[in-house]
Design brief:
The complex is a heterodimer of chains A (243) and B (419).
Chain A lengths: L1 E11 L2 E11 L4 E5 L6 H8 L7 E6 L2 E2 H11 E5 L10 H11 L4 H15 L14 H12 L6 E5 L7 H16 L3 E6 L2 H7 L2 E6 L2 E6 L1 H8 L4 H12 L3
Parallel strand pairs in A: 3-8, 3-9, 6-7, 7-8
Antiparallel strand pairs in A: 1-2, 1-4, 4-5, 9-10
Helix pairs in contact in A: 4-5, 8-9
Chain B lengths: L1 H14 L3 H31 L7 E4 L3 H9 L8 E4 L1 H9 L1 H9 L3 E6 L7 H13 L10 E5 L5 H26 L18 H46 L1 H6 L5 H33 L17 H28 L3 H24 L14 H11 L5 H27 L2
Parallel strand pairs in B: 1-2, 1-3
Antiparallel strand pairs in B: 3-4
Helix pairs in contact in B: 1-10, 2-8, 2-10, 3-7, 8-10, 8-11, 8-12, 8-13, 10-11, 11-13, 11-14
The chains are: A alpha/beta (243), B mainly alpha (419).
Chain lengths: 243, 419
């Protein structure tokens, strides 16, 4: 579903931010991208989301390349980052309606999708409130609802539970699990071990722009010859990080 | 294509989502600028005289003809008058220090003197016309009008010039009708203008008002247009990118160009509407300003013919489009929000400078100035108010500004898509 082939990205001539990354994410799989701050996770996620072009290499979404099929890819992916701040004077209803129009969702379907989505995250009582009146968690849930308005088969989550309280975090992780069972291919970046450990079927460790290890949680623990996933990450990090 | 209008409607609805936002964007800058234009002359008056009140013209031994003239003449009502006798004036000016102080505060003195203290000013003028009617070509009059004012004061100089031009000159001409008796000079006026007809009044004042407006209105519109454009570009492009909302928009299956064009259309429409509102307020302010005071920046009678109005109305959106192109290009070429804000504000200094240059320059723009984008729009509006617009100026400015705007947009979007 998602395929990265030898992807490189340089912002300046003398420094490479992403150095030849390759991996695949299949249907019904949650793929985790784990790495410290500055490792290149957000750059990689933005390239997968077509917000940025790789300097070289290829990114395919359901076999399609962004160079030729950009808008088709946009219909297939949902991208969510915790950095999104919504216009304080807008309301969830107005925003949902606006994005439904951009995604060509007919009016007849709009109400059903909205009701279902808002009910799942408990947004309905706040549907006509301005964003400035809502809590951070509620705004994040509305962001998720809007990102997935078109029911995309590929979902890209950049630090999905950052800044959320434990209750909202639980709702989000439960929802991701549900999406996996429905066959969505999900790629998420995180630096929270518990999230990666609980959710991801496959984890790639990104350090200094390169994937230094990849596998399931158990495989990574075995690779590092330690007892916990956290220890495994630190061992691998120390072995590969260059000052 | 319909997605452009979806984005356009969304941006417009955002602006109307709160009355504070609507007021801040649509009315506040316009009211502020119009207010400033009305306050500016008062400020200049205060700076040069130290008083907020406008001093009346102190008329010493004013003859009946003068009193009647100022009561019945529109131009003369731009001034207030205080009448005193020569003895009162002598008493007032006895203390020279106090007298000079009053002059420095903006007092204008107009002293009517017949040449001796035996008979009045009117009698002296009447006697002079009598002599002329008897074909005495060597007749002379010793009647004289003295003016006293503080020559070092900008305000006093301006006011005395206007007093001489619009009151005394016409008063002198009127004396032949009131005191001329049998003497009839060739070419004297055969009829009087109906000063109570508002249309005639506008026409009467239009040239003076439009010449002043030509120096002021164009600059005011440019400052307002740029201020509103940069605020909106900052909000719709820079802030949305900073907040991550732009990424969400361009992740939709709508071509980026359509999203940007929807926003650009919204900015151009809103700024054009705000500018038209301001233009309306400037006209209203002019028409409510019943005086034609020399210091007024919006004198009574500002008026444009339909074709002139059309030129101004078309110049506004074209200029806004160009301003938007420049602002959007700035936003896309910088990453840091603070850098964007500083770079977007810099042209405001240029527009302020251009405004003051326009206000005080006494020469017509050179041909080269029509090649300077945005500045050429200001010159075009200015010359339209002064009824000096030429078709080739209009077409050249429109085509040049639209061409540059399209080129800047094309370059910016191409660069953005290749990132």
């Amino acid at each position: 579903m998602i395929e990265l082939i030898d992807v490189h990205k340089s912002y300046t001539k003398d420094k490479e931010t992403i150095k030849g990354v390759s991996f695949e994410v299949h249907e019904g799989e949650i793929f985790g991208l784990l790495g410290p701050n500055g490792a290149g996770k957000t750059t990689l996620m933005q390239m997968i989301a077509t917000l940025m072009k790789p300097t070289s290499g290829q990114i395919l979404i359901d076999g399609l390349s962004a160079d030729k099929n950009l808008l088709d890819i946009h219909r297939k992916i949902g991208f969510l980052t915790n950095e999104i701040k919504l216009d304080p004077m807008s309301t969830p209803n107005a925003l949902f309606e606006f994005f439904a129009k951009l995604y060509d969702i007919p009016d007849s379907e709009l109400r059903d999708r909205r009701d279902e989505s808002f009910a799942r995250f408990g947004i309905s009582p706040f549907a006509d409130k301005r964003f400035k009146e809502l809590s951070t968690g509620m705004k994040q849930k509305i962001s998720i609802a809007i990102s997935l308005i078109h029911n995309p088969p590929v979902i890209i989550f950049d630090e999905p539970t950052n800044g959320l309280d434990i209750l909202t975090s639980k709702q989000v992780t439960d929802y991701l699990k549900e999406l996996r069972t429905k066959g969505h291919a999900i790629i998420l970046s995180t630096h929270i071990f518990s999230v990666a450990e609980e959710l991801c079927d496959n984890i790639a460790m990104l350090i200094d722009g390169s994937i230094v290890a990849q596998g399931t949680v158990d495989e990574l623990i075995a690779l590092a010859k330690v007892n916990t996933f956290e220890e495994a990450f630190f061992n691998i990090y120390v072995a590969h990080h260059k000052e | 294509m319909n997605k452009i209008f979806t984005v356009f409607k969304w941006e417009i609805s955002k602006l109307f989502s709160s009355w504070r936002r609507t007021f801040t964007l649509f009315l506040l800058p316009a009211i502020f600028l119009v207010g400033m234009l009305n306050l500016f002359p008062i400020l200049i008056n205060y700076m040069s005289t130290g008083s907020l009140n406008k001093q009346p013209v102190t008329c010493v031994d004013a003859p009946d003809t003068f009193r009647n003239y100022v009561e019945n003449t529109v131009d003369a009502t731009a001034f207030k008058y205080e009448y005193i006798t020569f003895d009162e004036f002598k008493e007032m000016s006895a203390d020279k220090e106090s007298y000079r102080k009053q002059l420095r505060k903006g007092m204008l003195v107009c002293l009517f003197f017949s040449g001796d203290f035996e008979h009045t000013f009117d009698d002296e003028v009447r006697a002079y016309y009598d002599e002329l009617s008897k074909e005495n070509t060597e007749a002379e009059s010793s009647a004289i009008i003295f003016l006293a004012y503080d020559g070092g004061s900008f305000t006093a100089n301006t006011r005395i010039e206007q007093f001489k031009e619009s009151v005394l000159k016409d008063y002198q001409s009127s004396l032949v009708d009131t005191l001329g008796g049998g003497f009839t000079p060739i070419g004297s006026s055969l009829f009087q203008v109906d000063v109570f007809n508002p249309v005639t009044k506008f026409a009467d004042h239009r040239t003076v008002a439009n010449n002043t407006a030509g120096r002021v209105v164009a600059g005011v519109l440019m400052i307002l247009m740029y201020y509103t454009t940069y605020s909106l570009v900052s909000d719709m492009f820079a802030s949305e990118r900073e907040r991550g909302f732009m990424a969400k928009l361009i992740m939709t299956p709508v071509p980026r160009k359509q999203i940007y064009m929807g926003k650009i259309l919204a900015i151009t429409s809103i700024v054009s509407f705000t500018s038209l509102l301001t233009l309306g307020l400037l006209f209203l302010s002019s028409w409510l300003n019943r005086s034609n005071d020399a210091m007024s920046l919006l004198p009574f009678g500002m008026f444009l013919t339909p074709s002139e109005l059309l030129i101004v109305l078309l110049t506004i959106p074209i200029t806004v489009l160009l301003m938007t192109a420049v602002c959007v290009s700035t936003v896309f070429s910088l990453k840091n929000m603070e850098d964007i804000t500083v770079n977007l504000q810099l042209p405001l200094i240029y527009f302020l400078g251009d405004f003051f240059l326009q206000l005080f320059r006494g020469t017509r723009p050179t041909t080269l100035e029509y090649f300077i984008p945005v500045h050429n729009s200001m010159e075009l509006i200015s010359e339209t108010f002064m009824a000096q617009d030429k078709l080739w100026h209009v077409l050249f400015v429109y085509l040049l500004n639209i061409g540059i705007a399209i080129a800047v947009f094309a370059h910016t979007f191409k660069k953005e898509e290749n990132k």
